[in-house]
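Appendix B. One record, verbatim.
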Amino acid sequence: MWLQTALTLQHWPAKHSRRRFFTSCQAGQAPGSRGSGPTSASSPLDALKPPLAILGAIAVGAAVPTLARQIFGRGGRGGGSGVGGGGGNGGVDGGRSGQAGQAAGREDEKKKKPPPLVTLTLVSFSTTRKAYERITARFAREYQAATGQPVRFRLSFGGSGTQARAVVDGLPGDIVALALPLDIMKIAEAGLINADWQKRVPNNAVVAESVVAIVTRHGNPKNIRGWDDLIRPDVEVITANPKTAGVARWNFLALWGHRMGKGDAAAEDFVTKVFERVPVQPRDAREASDVFYKQGNGDALLNYENEVFFTNQAYSAQDALPYVAPQHNVRVQTPVAIVDKNVDQRSVRTRAATRAAAEAFVDYLFTPEAQADFVAVGFRSIDKKMAKRSKLPKVGKAWTVEGKLGSWGATQDKFFAGQGVLDRIQRRVGETKAALRLAAKAQRRWCRRTQAAMGIIPDLLHAREWRL
């Protein structure tokens, strides 16, 4: 009956007002009829009462006919979204209820939206590439499965010192995993990492360890067995540049520690003699391996044990080179930290998620799964059980920088700061090599003059050589 009335009104002549329509209904007439008798409904308004099913549909926000919106006012529109939109009462209550329903609907939509993608930039030193490629891929899968938060990584590798300077200069790293604490301290001094970075992470922020190894040629033709053999005049040593590579600073400290028991003067003299035997200083540990393995330069290579392990894996058994891990050695400890300022500068939408993912990743590095990845590429695990199962050579007298040289700050000031021990040694080595080059040139000239005087070579060639 209600539907029939509604259809009748849709075709109601424009000259009839709605007031006349309601008057006609109250008189018991069907819209548009001229009769005066009552309708079959028990009440004059029963003809306009819609079925309960239709009212229910309106209440839960179903599509409402144009006629119903005209009758129920704004209340009919109010039920268009969410729950509880239907109305009546002049449409006011229905409109308010509809607005509440729309707000609830929007909240539901927000809840259904997937979380924004978090991108973490990991900045590390060259020899960790293989380990971190494995660890980041597995962490991203497991973290999303556990939290629903998608994470992707951008990875940057290079010399540890170079990487630290890059972050200070603006490389947007969220996490740094560098070769030694000094490099992270430089970033902290620039105001990018909070001062308590070591206290916030297990194991004083050290995620993996190694030692310094001496790599030799096949069959060890120079019979190099330890540190003392590196100062022999017939041995050339390849080591990276301490100004750019963390491995070279570890090499420096290992050499210093070997003679430190005899005093600083003896230690400095020993390190100076070793660096006098260095013909070239590559940029980082990986380049040092290339110079020694691929280019064939040098008789001995100083490098991380894990880098030697990884490089030998990349070569065939015939091309892999032997190495010595001296018993009196330094414990190479590689730390990790969150670059707080870079993380906190993320947008409001992703800042909290970025911080949570970064902290979870750093904690993940100390799990057995991540430690197994470090061990697989030649690192020594910080997990005691894994360390006992290690097949790497035993090093009986490994020492730490803090235990033997004091704090890292004191070590930096003494050895690696401007005008420190390293600068003094490099200056002495440079002067010695320059003097040797001049002496060699003078020797060649003397030989040329002697040969010319004896008639062995033409005077013209002698004159040309003399002008050189």
